[in-house]
Structure prediction request, 223 residues.
Amino acid sequence: KNEVEQSPQNLTAQEGEFITINCSYSVGISALHWLQQHPGGGIVSLFMLSSGKKKHGRLIATINIQEKHSSLHITASHPRDSAVYICAVRGSQGNLIFGKGTKLSVKP
Amino acid sequence: DADVTQTPRNRITKTGKRIMLECSQTKGHDRMYWYRQDPGLGLRLIYYSFDVKDINKGEISDGYSVSRQAQAKFSLSLESAIPNQTALYFCATSASPGGINYGYTFGSGTRLTVV
Prediction:
């Protein structure tokens, strides 16, 4: 079993829809990261969180440490949100363990 | 200029050739990492370095070596490239734990094809 599991693997949405991507992990962590990878390949860090909730524009990330679960929400989705979203957890040594990613496609 | 710069961006090489991928950063971060990404798999750690004198193997270090020439430079070498090393390679940096900006910054990636 992978230490970091994301769901769904693929997601297609219509422009304007509310989107949720889930991440569950099985190891102790010091922080959890949400990353975005565009078709060109580059990876951008969206959030780093260790408790509660963070918001940046239309993106919201939450984490429940007790349940070892995090969600990434996108409100009012737009075609430019189409990308692969990656959950990664940081262990005690500081290294990241990555999920396999969720490929999001937002149709106009 | 990008905070984390990888060169080259794309490279096609032949089996058995030695190749070096370079990474330089202007973040001032102590920690640097090399990851590879394969289709359908998450990023996997090849090597990491917490400072110039500290080099550590990751989960898939076989067939690779690294050099931390300076705080800002971390190179990955494939001594004798093989086709299953075809992948997208990322360099990343982070500050030490407890730092105010303890996040990760990724380079743009190097797409390597071994034929």
Q: What stands out?
A: Chain B touches chain A at residues 31, 33, 40-45, 48, 50, 58, 88, 90, 92, 94, 96-97, 102-106, 108-109, 111 (CB under 8 Å). Chain B has a mean pLDDT of 92. Chain B has no helices and eleven strands.
